[in-house]
Structure formats: C-alpha cells, structure tokens
Amino acid sequence: MFGIGKSKKKVRSNRRKVKREIFEAVVPISLVEQAEAFTAPRGHMEMGGLLIGHVDDKGRNVCAVGIFPEQIEETPSYCEFDGKWMAMCAAAADFANSQIGSEDTPNLRVIGWIHTHPGLGLFLSGIDIKTYEDNLNMTKDGRFVAVVVDPLEGNNGVFLTPDKPRTFISASGSIQMDVELKARYLKFLQRMEEIRGTRGREVLPFILCGDLRAEHVSKGNTDDFIESYLKGIHSTRKDLKRTRKDLKSLAEDSEDRSYLIDRLGELISRNEKKLAEIESSIEVLQKEMEKKILKMNTQMEIREKDLVEAIGKLSESLETKFAEIEMAIMATLIHEEGGSQDIVAEKTDKVETKLAPYFLALGVS
Ligand SMILES: [Zn+2]
Question: Measuring CA to CA, how many Å separate 344 from each of 29, 124, 267, 313?
Fold first, then answer.
C-alpha cells in the first residue's frame, strides 16, 4: 500500500471510467537493485518513493532515476511521504530541462512511484489502486508507472495500469541515452543533492541514480547504493551473530535437556532397583509368613491332637475315678446302712445328679 502526501487536495471528481491508454514502460535493473539495497535492511517496513523519467522515441514511459524521501508514515503494510516531494521533483526536473539539452532532448518528469511490499508479494492493493488513479488523473497525458519491490524476496513488478492490479512486467536491462539526456539527468540528480545538502540527509535518505550511478558518484557525491549495501551487509552480519547466539543457546538448551534425560534415566533405573528390592523382600516376607503359618498350623494340629489325647486320658481317668468313688460310696453305704439297697441307690442318684454338669462339660456320659 502506498499514499502520497498529507496535502490531500481533493481530487477533482472527474474520475470518469474512460478507457485508459496503456503505455509500455522501461525500468532498468539498476533502479530496482538500488531500491532493494536501500529498503532491505528496513525489514518489514514499507517505503515509498518517486520515479523520474521521460517518454522515449517509441512512446514508452522510461523510469531512469528516483528518490526515497523521509517517510512520514511507515508500517509493515503502509507508507506515506510528504506530497511536497512530488512538487520538488517536478521543479527539479523543470530546472534540469531548462538548463541542459536541446529541443530534441526528452523532458524529464515525475513518471511513476516505487514502493516496497516487504514479504507481501507483488500486487496493487486497494490504496495502491486509488493512489495510482489519483496520480494518473493529475497528469495531462495519462502517463504514470507503478513499481512494486519486494526486497525480502528480491522480486519486482512494473504495473502499467491501475485497472490490472495483478498484472505486471519485471525490470530489465539498462537505458540507452545520449549525452544530452544523460547530462539532463545528472543535473536533476545534482539538484536533489542540493536539497539534501540544505535539508539534511535524513530528509532525503536515498537517491536512486539508476544507470547513472557511477557518473553521479564520480562527481564527488556519496554512493547511496554502496552505503546501503554496506549497511545491509552489516545488518546481515548482526543477524548472523544473533542467529549464531540463538543456535549456541539452543545447543546449550539441548545439552541441558540431554542432561535432564540422563538424570531421569538414572532415577528410573535406581528406582527400578529399589522396586525390585522391595518386591523381593515382599516375596521373602510372604514365604516367611507362609512358613510361619504352616508351622503354626502343624503346631496347632499337634496341640489339638495332644489336647484331644489329654482330654481323652483325663476323662478316662475321671471315669475310673468316678467309678471308684461310686463303688466306695456304695460300699460305705452298704456297710453303714445295713444293706438297704434302696437308700444306697437314692444317695448314689443324688451324687450323680450333682456331678452331671461336670461330666457333661468333660464329654463323659
Ligand atoms: Zn502497496
């Protein structure tokens, strides 16, 4: 996306949908290379600038040089620079036209705009189309070119009309120009250097010299391209440094991680040992318990047997004893009572009744 100028003079509502004439365009490789070198280190920030050119003898819109002025708004999807640059470039072109060359020399003019779509791809957005139409409507002959550069992908698109926002050609080759035309362009570029000299470099950070770069620099001007290129390399080196740092910390992280995994493994195997120990000691305990239970059972059986035997013996001896006691009592009674069988039997019954619960408890009948 792209916008030119805060000085938004209402575009006269003469936006009749007339069929626009489409002109061929010439954009040299050098121009987009320089634009890429300048904008690439700015990452995902969009930047916009103006293209200055002429109409060649084949009626083509030739974009030869340009500028990237200070951006008043710069976001990943929108850029804007002051509209006064349009007027300043037009004035500088007029100045060069008046100073250098003959009537046969094509006049320089603002012929297009260039802006970046960092990593966004090549197309004209809704705002781009509006800007393109507005700029076309401001020209007398309907000549204006839109160049979109994706400095992150290294692609560029030259759009010939706002009506086909996805149709473009690519910059190619270089521009053939005679000495006078060249001198005219160099005059224009020098004028831009003057503006930069009085207003400051930050106001005009980049001058696109296109194919005339070497000649412009040989006049003692700074080489914006090389400076940007070096800045690009510097930022690339910084990126590399950062990446190397990231990689290093990643490697350290993974070392930490493998250390943790080792420790976990150790803990698991140590616990496995412990578990095995516990399991085997449980087994031992179980076996011991079983043995003890078995022993107890055997002992219980033996004791039971002993007990039964003892009870048996006891009851036997008790029976004998009782029988003896019975006999003795009977003998005594017979002796004392003079042989009264009935009385003896009665007394014996009494004794037996008294002893009966004891006999019952001992299991003796
Ligand atoms: Zn755009």
Answer: 153, 143, 92, 29
Cα(230) to ligand 1 centroid in Å equals 27
Token pair belonging to 258: 């493998």
- The full length of the chain comes to 365
Main-chain dihedrals φ then ψ at residue 157, nearest 5 degrees: -135, 135
Among 200, 222, 244, the domain-final residue is: 222
In the reported structure, the alpha carbon of residue 13 is separated from the centroid of ligand 1 by a whole-number distance in angstroms of 23
d(CA 342, ligand 1 centre) in Å: 144
Host domain of residue 206? 18-222
Domain count, the chain: 2
Q: Is the pLDDT of residue 8 over 60?
A: no
Cα of 155 vs centre of ligand 1, distance in Å, is 14
Give 240 Cα–ligand 1 centroid separation in angstroms.
29
Q: What is the CATH number of the domain that holds 109?
A: 3.40.140.10
d(CA 222, CA 155): 26
**Would the pTM count as exceeding 0.70?**
no
Which residues lie across from 148 on neighbouring strands? 115, 157
pLDDT tens digit sequence for 121-148: 999 999 999 999 999 999 999 999 999 9
Structural domain ending residue among the three candidates 172, 189, 222 = 222
Q: What's the 1 CA to ligand 1 centre distance in angstroms?
A: 3
Query: From the CA of 258, how far away is ligand 1's center (Å)?
Result: 48
Based on the fold, state whether residues 207 and 315 are members of the same structural domain.
no
Residue 164: predicted pLDDT: 96
Å from CA of 60 to ligand 1 middle: 23
Across all residues in the chain, what is the average pLDDT? 84
